Amino acid sequence: MSKSSPLKRAIVAPAVGALMAGLFSLGTAAPASALTSAPVAGSVGAKAHPTGCSYGISHRSGSWASCSSHNGGSYRAITICQEERGTRKKNVSATTWKQSGMSYSYCGAGWVPDSAGIESSASNKS
Question: 0.90 exceeded by the pTM?
Fold first, then answer.
């Protein structure tokens, strides 16, 4: 068994800490858009994800989404659609990003909405 030198401990300990932090963060649930990097708070031009958001299924056609404050970011409606006479599913996103108002995504003919959601971004994509 080799003796641990102070230099070896100084290099290995931070590396192990970073690895453990990365492993523990894998179990957290976050929207895909939250995985993108954002500016450091307090920096010039720092933006945040929209807040006060709600979403739901539009009657047999798709979904809607809306946020009360964009905070410099954008949002859009997303829908998981299912075949009307089948078991296949597909994901549909609104084509335009919004900073105000309602966002809609449509399933299309032969498909019905199964669930609704919202995708947000800390940047202005509209």
Answer: no
**What is the DSSP code (8-state) at residue 63?**
E
Nearest to 103 by CA among 92, 91, 94: 94
Tell me if 102 sits within 8 A of 14, measured CB to CB: no
Question: Is the Cα dihedral 99, 102, 107, 113 positive or negative?
Answer: positive
For residue range 41-88, list pLDDT tens digits in order: 443 456 789 999 999 998 889 999 999 999 999 999 999 999 999 899
**Length of the chain counted residue by residue:** 126
For residue 8, give both structure tokens. 């070896």
Instruction: With residue 113 as reference, give the H or E element that holds it.
Output: strand 111-121
For residues 98 and 74, the answer to whether their CB atoms sit within 8 Å is yes
Measured between alpha carbons, how far is 83 from 88 in angstroms, rounded to an integer?
6
CA distances from 8 to 3, 4, 12, 17 (A): 10, 6, 6, 14
